[in-house]
Write a structure and sequence with these properties.
Bound molecules: NADPH dihydro-nicotinamide-adenine-dinucleotide phosphate, oxalic acid
Order of helices and strands: EHEEEEHHEHEEHEHEHEEH
CATH class of the largest domain: Alpha Beta
Oligomer: single chain
Number of strands: 12
Strand order of the largest sheet: 8-7-6-9-10-11-12
Number of helices: 8
CATH topology of the largest domain: Rossmann fold
Number of domains: 2
Radius of gyration: 21 Å
Distance between the termini: 29 Å
Helix content: 25-40%
Shape: elongated
Length: 312
């Protein structure tokens, strides 16, 4: 890249120095500004963000692209971004593989009854729970995008009986693809392990609620890796208490970090991880960001651009 570009970086989670070093090693012409403060916002070409800075981006009048530091984009508050700017998210084979591993690990945890054996251990109980064949275990993946479809394929390859649910119709060898509420309700009735990999939009907010848990097969388990806003937390606690849900692995929460006094921390049927299912880092993710910086400078369309109107 011959031309100079100015990039504004803001994240409460990611290390600006590591990103600056990685990007400038590849693009020595790059001018890198670490937020949240920016003295000359009108000179910025590209915003590389986990979230918007507190002052928003209205003063960034020369902005040509917004690049998300996550695979998801809801945290960018798309409605509050300058209209018309292309927004791209972070997608990379290795990151996708991390999500696949997380979902395989958690699915196997429930499949091999490790949640039940953990509660036996707490009561010093010694008895066998006969294993079930993977082919008899129904897994339903909500969301068949970059991540959801990779997870569904990997679990199907492992022998699980997999279906996936998406907004538009799909045909993917290896698992059944479903759309619409009627198909969702039917699939939930036979589902043993439910994996949520939806984006957070106006349509999907609060989807994991009392009604959905009512539709679920009794004793089914949840792997929640989408966004905290998908889950109605009190409804989850109720579904665990009445036995509708057998357990849940939660990686994302309405408030992150999870507050110290939150009832989830000590709940015996919950396993929590601190939003690490995929966890991007500059070493792994820089190549795609560098390519999108190059494309912005050259006026080309971004890789993995989202559709602003659909919110993902
Ligand atoms: P994509 O945008 O590639 O795919 C989204 C999928 O959800 C698509 O299949 C889409 O359907 C489907 N979908 C969207 N809205 C609806 C709806 N109303 N009803 C049914 N299906 C719907 O996303 P990714 O697979 O890359 O990522 C999914 C989400 O995972 C991210 O948005 C983020 O929230 C979360 N995530 C979590 C991480 C973690 O560490 N826990 C890390 C990274 C991401 P269609 O294909 O028909 O458009
Ligand atoms: C996310 C990410 O979007 O970690 O959650 O990439």
């Amino acid at each position: 890249m011959k031309q100079q570009a100015t990039i504004f970086f803001h994240s409460e989670l990611d290390d600006p120095q590591a990103w600056q070093a990685t990007l400038q090693a590849a693009l020595p012409q790059l001018c890198f500004i670490t937020g949240p403060k920016c003295d000359a916002p009108e000179e910025v070409d590209i915003a590389l963000l986990w979230t918007q800075p507190p002052q928003g981006l209205q003063a960034f009048t020369g902005l040509r692209a917004v690049l998300s530091l996550g695979a998801g984009v809801d945290q960018l508050r798309l409605d509050a971004l300058p209209p018309g700017e292309p927004v791209a998210r972070l997608i990379d084979q290795t990151l996708t593989q991390r999500m696949v591993e997380y979902c395989q690990a958690t699915t196997l945890y429930f499949h091999r009854h490790l949640h039940l054996h953990a509660s036996q251990q707490a009561r010093q109980q010694w008895y066998f729970i006969p294993p079930v064949n993977a082919s008899a275990r129904r897994v339903l993946v909500l969301g068949l995008g970059e991540l959801g479809s990779a997870v569904a394929k990997a679990l199907a390859r492992q022998g699980f009986d997999v279906s996936g649910w998406s907004r538009t119709a799909k045909l993917v060898p290896g698992f059944v693809c479903l759309q619409g509420e009627v198909a969702l309700q039917k699939a939930l009735g036979g589902c043993d392990i439910l994996i949520n990999l939806l984006p957070l939009t106006a349509q999907t907010r609060g989807l994991l609620d009392h009604r959905l848990f009512e539709w679920l097969k009794t004793g089914a388990c949840l792997v929640q890796v989408g966004r905290g806003g998908h889950l109605v937390e009190d409804d989850l606690l109720e579904a665990l208490a009445d036995g509708r849900l057998g357990g849940a692995f939660l990686d994302v929460f309405a408030v992150e970090p999870l507050p110290a006094d939150h009832p989830f921390w000590a709940h015996p049927q919950l396993r929590l991880t601190p939003h690490v299912a995929l966890l991007s880092d500059p070493v792994q993710s820089a190549a795609m960001v560098i390519e999108n910086i190059r494309r912005t400078v050259q006026g080309q369309p971004l890789l993995h651009a989202i559709k602003r109107a659909s919110g993902y």
